[in-house]
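Session log. Operator J.P. requested a structure for one protein chain; no other inputs attached. Running the standard single-chain path with token output.
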Amino acid sequence: MAFSDTIVALASSAGFGGVGVIRVSGPSAVLIAQRIAPWWSAESLPGLLRYGTFVSPTGAPLDTGLIVRFAGPRSYTGEDVVEFQVHGGAINLSRFVNALVGCGARPAEPGEFSRRAFLNGRVDLAQAEAVADVVSARSEGGLVLAQAQLAGALSSRVRAAMDQLLDLLAALEVQVDFVDEDLGEALTRGFEGTLRGVHDDVQHLVASYALGRVLRGDARVVLAGAPNAGKSSLFNALLGVSRAIVTPIPGTTRDTLEAAVDLGGLVVTLIDTAGLRDQSDDPVEAEGIRRGRAAADEADLVVWLGEGGPGDALWVSPKCDLRAPHGGGIPVSAVTGAGLDRLREAIRHRLGGAVKADGVLVTNPRHHAALSQAAGALRKALEAPHAAPELLAVDVREAVWQLGTIVGATTTDDLLDRVFSQFCIGK
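Structure written below.
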């Protein structure tokens, strides 16, 4: 990725809409913009919107709209940025982007704007990832968490832990360098207490992922039970649309069916499964049963319809419009809607969605993995506090490295490629 290039991409939806936003960033952003808007002056004040008619490289009219400049290094990317606000519509926006490419811009790679913002020091890596999380938020809770991360909530906690560990690491290295002068022991006094405090804080962040991923909308809820228990009917009722085929014939559902559903502010992936029984002579049904069991094993929560379910499942007594509730489960009717609100609340409660998020919650699996590795390294150091300082330094250094990958203090090209390849083109 060459920073000498000037890049362009659509920064808004490519579908139907009143307004579309196109972003140009790089050293030639202003010059390229002037070819599209020859009436526009490069001396325009940053942030000042100007209205006019834009033209193609051949001088043909393109569209009317607004143009605004954001001067580097105080722009989003840290470079000169020019944005165009023109009429929406896929054809119009595509033609406008192609005109800018014809003037010398290069189509941006996925996440390239945010990657430049990170590499130019405008945001750290965790904040850059939060940009994608804000855009893709599936619920109000997920959006709040993403905005907190974008504001630096997680980064501040991680950097505070890194600072303490770097101080410990410096003291350990002094102890190694001055072992004959007996200076190091005084410098590392209180080492174990500080190390334990950092470990506990990092471990707290690790543990917060269980709730964070639920609030982000990554939880999977499986509807399971015997054949013809009413799983598909309940699936449709919770979705509010008819997605699953429902018949009186047992074994109608042969495969898992997934859909996102908002349960009062908590978005989950709801999974309908084939009816579970010990065996089936039908190979297709047998495969559906196998897939249903696999989905239940991987689920965050199993909602079991009827009796005989696993002890950790949320039990439901279905079809309460046809028969009396049994088994102590929540009575529900997919036909009348009775009990559905109570079931939604019970699912939220079991997943932890009713808990108010206090402090920082980890939502990103990459961050969770790095924090887990850091906690493991710190735990290893705590288990051998009287080990040689050079050995303790290895564990502390590993923890610092892992924490650094979260905020981008330690990175590799492969890591950045993996992170930013998941972004949409215009971010």
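Operator note: The longest strand covers residues 61-70.
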